Amino acid sequence: VQLQASGGGLVQAGGSTRLSCAASGHNYSFRRYTVAWFRQLPGKEREFIAAFRGNGGSTHYSDSVKGRFTISRDNAKNEMHLQMNSLKPEDTAVYYCAADANVILSSVRLSQAYDWWGQGTQVTVSS
């Protein structure tokens, strides 16, 4: 599976931006895949942000973004998105999209559960 992330850039605090991730080369229908977004700061581990389980499953968010970020997916277009509102300087990071067809519920927040990753896109929130 190839994941191509886009979006991000420089945003003012309180502003919004939208990240997208396009999938290709997947063996199964895209709707089967659990998709997720993580972020990472230099020298730190990847932090779970949001996930959308496959086959019409549930969405999950980290406490740090709940109510501000929204994960969505368009299975017909093989795309996933992250709408980011009310951005804060501490949201500054490289954001990664991820996907896997075999993520169990208890593992949706674990980066190790995902085999496929996008290249990362920088989001910088200025104060």
Explain what the structure shows.
Strand 4 (34-40) and strand 5 (47-52) form a beta hairpin. Helices cover 0% and strands 49% of the residues. It has 127 residues and is mostly beta strands. It is globular and about 40 Å long. The model has no long low-confidence stretch (mean pLDDT 96). The chain has strands at 2-7, 9-12, 17-24, 34-40, 47-52, 59-61, 69-74, 79-84, 93-100, 116-117, 121-126.
Biggest β-sheet description: 7 strands, mixed
Average predicted confidence as pLDDT: 96
Q: How far apart, in Å, are the first and last alpha carbons? A: 37 Å
Helix content: under 10%
Q: Could you tell me the radius of gyration in angstroms?
A: 14 Å
Ranges with pLDDT <50 over ≥5 residues?
A: none
Order of helices and strands: EEEEEEEEEEE
Structural class: mainly beta
Strand runs, count? 11
How many distinct helices?
A: 0
Strand content: over 45%
